[in-house]
Amino acid sequence: MTSLLPDQISIAVTVYNRRQFVRQAVASALNQTVPVRVIVVEDCGPDPALKSFVQDEFGSRIQYVRNPTRRGLFGNWNACMDLCRTPWLSILHDDDYLAPEFIEAMIELQHQAPDQALYFGRTIWLNGRDQPVGECPLHPVNAPWHRVGLLNALYGPPFDFPGQLFNVSAARDAGGFRESSFYTGDWEMWAKLIARGGAAQTAKIVAFNRRAELGARQSNAVIRSGRQKVATVMQIKRVLALLPPESRVPFDRASYHGSNPLPTSFFLRCGASLRPRFMAYNLRLLLLARPPHWRYALYQFCARFGRGPFIRLSSTLWHLLRRVRPES
Length: 328
Known about the structure:
By secondary structure, the protein is an alpha/beta fold. It is 43% helix and 18% strand. Strands 1, 2, 3, 4, 5, 6, 7, 8, 9 and 10 form a ten-stranded mixed sheet that branches.
């Protein structure tokens, strides 16, 4: 077993234009109980003074790099790997932050589960007032740590961003993050790393994720357009293809959509602007869903008869009401 050492780890903080959060993100990377190298990678953002803003705060404690052209979400993650000079890398968004014991927990986890390609922990969700509102419910850990298999990544990423540490060489061998991916590039990479080298999760809380309002992050453009479920189904098929033939499970698309209903909040927020093609697709998913409660069943009943015009009208009225009575 090769022990993981601090000088083998880098944390890359990806930034674009969120001054209000970036100081906390970078500070959380620097103020680890076990210090490691920190780089800040700006994706050619619109704020020309952002670099000096960050460097004035942190000085020589960080390396700051600005991409010469915009590379997009997953292209910027590949830029982080290109700039990484250590075997292990953690990527942190500028509006999230790490617990002080993140690196300490990752080193401990590597001792418990050596020779994996991916390590991660639990992530707490925060609302707009930075209050805890839950945590990623994908795969609860009922022991101090556990190994994670591909089936844990079949219907969604095995963890919520951030709080991950991955082997850079294994990620490069997997082809890097797919820059053409508009939604599932992280999920796809984590599945590839699990398939190639395995993964483990600690039960410790290692990171904090600000739950962005719809539209605040690049990937949420996919949600607004109605393409989220299309991208999700395609990625499920990619994960299935990574499984050995004897371990593959059948994918019943109708059953999946029935048990994973699109929330009515999606239709209220985005229904008025859906293009006809994606309106028809998401309406079909709405009618396939098994209602989780009576309010959903009522909306579903109205949509069954009112079709697209009902969804557009309900969305338009919802937006009008929000302007008259803003959310608290």
